[in-house]
Each structure stands twice: as structure tokens, then as C-alpha cells.
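Marked as duplicate of an earlier ticket. Keeping the data here for the record.
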Amino acid sequence: MRRGRFHIYAYKYWVRIDPYRMGTHLAIKILLLEDDKLFNETLQDFLEEEGFILDTVLDPYSALDLTYENRYDLYLFDVNLPYENGFELLEKLRYAGDMTPTIFITSRDDKASLTQGFTQGGDDYLTKPVDLDELLLRVNAILRRQSRSQMVKIGIYTFDSISKILYENDMPLELTQKASELLLVLLEGQGKVVQLEQIKERLWSSSEMASDGSLRVYITQLKKYFPTQIHNIRGVGYQMSFDA
């Protein structure tokens, strides 16, 4: 079973902070599935110029493979595709627990297709020809909704679980990408012990070699900000406590 995106609970209280206040879409990663190569490249160029990180594919099988290997903040799926359509692909992902926000981009404009797109778990639906400015507005709207439901306050710090940036008084703190991902994994544990195997699966892709030494380095980075809240359960995993 594919791992899914977990809901993040605030252990102190919810906060509303705009993740775009830094003037760019930091570390927002999008998977684009569009079988028209020219249109695929057009969307990629436009979104990368807007500061997003893009992985692009031309068929649903390649898209599915990438969802197993990477963690994305947003999917942009065409509907009319070779082998299977975008609705069927998203149905598989939702069944496997992947709740990544998804926008369908399609030439279908009939009510039945619109209904199917939302029924299968789509978050928005854009018909071709696509106005790129409208696409950007819709992408930003979805990411803002995600941000507002996934900002967590931990003591004096605020963690943006989409951009994976830790803040103190609205100022970003120094934290490597994998240390930030580790913090997210520990938060998702909701105070429970997170198994070493689960941590390594999240921090390293299938093509990378997991390292116990590197993991200890990332833990040390986090303990700089949370010296008493991260606990090593020897031989089992790590736990983050949230006692007042």
C-alpha cells in the first residue's frame, strides 16, 4: 500500500501565515502529467518561471512511478491519456491513501466529466485552451488552502509543512531539506514513536542509500531547536513530544 499524505495537527494552536510572504513559492513541487509534448513544455516553462519545481511526464504509468518515489505538493493531470485516463489514475492514488491536491486539465467540458473529476477526488478542473494566468490563480488558491490547514505552531516556532520551512518570529531558520522532511515525519507521528524504517522510506528515495549516520546528523540539527522534545527510542525509532 502506498503511503499517503497525513493530516497535520497543531500541538499548540493553529496559525494562519502566508507561505508566499517570502516572494516565491519555496520548495513547492508539482507533478505535471500531459501527453501533448508541446503543451507539457509550455506549462513546465511557465510554472518554473513562477518559481515552482516541476517533474513532467507524458503517460500515467510514468506518473504513477514518480508518485511512489517522490512527495509532491500538487498534481496537474490531463484527462485524455494513453493507457488510462487521468480520472482512473487519481482514483488509484486516492484508494492508496494519496491525498495530494489535484487539478485536472482537459478538453472535456461536459457536465458528466466535470462530475466524474470531482467524484474521483479532484480539487479543481480547468478546461482547454488553458489561460495560464488563470491556472496560476487556481494553483495558488489550492496551495493557500493547504497551507492554512497545515501550519503548525510548536512552542516559539512555526513550521510550514508545505514549503517545509521552520520559522521563528516569521524569520526562516537554517535547516536542511532532509532535516525539514524529518521534522514533518515526526509531527505526523502525533507524539508516537516513528519507526526507523518509516523514517528512512520518507527521507530517501528508492534510488538512494539510507544512512544511519546521516539520520543522526538530521536529528542533531532538529535538536538545536527542540533539545528536549526529540527522543531516540534505541533500535526502534524517534519520538517527538509536545508537553507544555
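See parent ticket for discussion. Residues 175-240 form a domain with the Arc Repressor Mutant, subunit A fold (CATH 1.10.10.10).
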